[in-house]
Amino acid sequence: MRNTIIVSHFRLAFTNISAVASSGLIYYYHRCCHRNWVVRKKLRLSSVRSWMSAAESSASVRVLPSKKEQDSTLILLHGFGSSASDLIPLAESVAPPSTKCILPEAPLRHDAPFPVRAWFSLDLTSHLWYRCSDKEGLESTLNRIFKLVADEIEKGISSNKIFIGGFSQGGAVTLNCMLRSPHQLGGFVAASSWLVGEEEYPAKLLSTHLETPLFMGHGENDSVVPFALGKHSAEIIRSFGFKNIMFRSYPKMDHFINEQERRDIENFLNSCYFDRMVSKSTLSH
Predict the structure, then answer these.
(1) Does residue 216 contact residue 248 with C-beta atoms inside 8 Å?
(2) Contact between 39 and 29 (Cβ < 8 Å)
(3) Which of 135, 134, 138, 117 is nearest to 10 (CA)?
(4) Residue-number span of the structural domain to which 124 is assigned
(5) 22: in domain
(6) Distances in Å between the alpha carbon of 23 and those of 30, 35, 180?
């Protein structure tokens, strides 16, 4: 495995609508270890059509069976403009052997010049893009994730052996799941993310997970979701009474997951799986 596993980097480079109209939108989309695609305005029409066709025909969920008899489940949520397949290398490398991985795929939304997969819409023209104006989209996504959790419980998986994690926008959904899940789950992971819908709390807050472990990792050089926003989100959640939050920063890291953070996530999930106390000594150094 390379030193850095890039889970998703879907950077939107623009300043305002007029700039987009005149010069086009450039997407930098780094795929996990294998591909480095750059989609530009001058792409041939046939390439764009091929990309659109592939996006529209993608499965709604990817499932990775456990390597041993299943007794736990990890639900991983991809970032804005990404897809479930981008998280497969991460899922395979961090999940305990008896853990099945469920990788849902977000619906296509028109948040860009062409449809992109997103868990809820973002106003990308605003400097307050991180606020959620699409409450209906967020609610729909949360209900979908809670349904996946309920299905696993119905199949016989103990709720405290179900874990939810996400990258970027997927992490934003994960944090809301933690604050509002009616089931006592085993742990949560939010990488390069932030708390969306902050204004909804504490009104919609459930106290189910006040003791449940939460791992938040963030690159100090994140150029997509600012490091300060991620750290502030952790502080807000802690102020709600959540006692088991671990926020870890990674110097010189941009909007991706490097090998150190990957190991930290793996160690965190293993600690949650075996019901061990999660502490800084649990993580890599």
Answers:
(1) yes
(2) yes
(3) 117
(4) 60-282
(5) no
(6) 22, 25, 42
User: Rounded to an integer, what distance in angstroms lies between the CA atom of residue 76 and that of residue 87?
Assistant: 7
**Cα 15 versus chain centre, distance:** 25
Count Cβ atoms below 10 Å from residue 268 Cβ, excluding itself.
25
Q: Is residue 248 in some structural domain?
A: yes
Using CA atoms, how far apart are residues 104 and 74, in angstroms rounded to an integer? 11
Instruction: Quote the pTM value.
Output: 0.78
Cα distance between residue 282 and residue 284, in whole Å: 7
Residue 68 CB coordination number (10 Å)? 10
Number of CB atoms found within 10 A of residue 239's CB = 10
Task: Note if the bond before 202 is cis, omega within 30 degrees.
Answer: yes
Give the CATH number of the domain where residue 266 resides.
3.40.50.1820
Question: pLDDT tens track of the chain, all 285 residues?
Answer: 444 443 333 333 322 322 332 222 222 333 333 333 332 333 333 334 334 444 444 448 999 999 999 999 999 999 999 999 999 999 999 999 999 999 999 999 887 677 889 999 887 777 677 777 788 999 999 999 999 999 999 999 999 999 999 999 999 999 999 999 999 999 999 999 999 988 888 878 888 889 999 999 999 999 999 999 999 999 999 999 998 999 999 999 999 999 999 999 999 999 999 875 555 555 554
Q: Using an 8 Å Cβ cutoff, are 177 and 190 in contact?
A: no
- Is residue 222 domain-resident? yes
- 3-class DSSP assignment, residue 275: coil
The whole-angstrom separation of Cα 104 and Cα 86 is 11
Query: Would you say the C-alpha torsion 124, 8, 150, 203 has a positive or negative sign?
Result: negative
Number of domains present in the structure of the chain: 1
Determine, yes or no, domain membership for 49: no
CA dihedral 60, 140, 93, 12 (to 10 degrees): 90
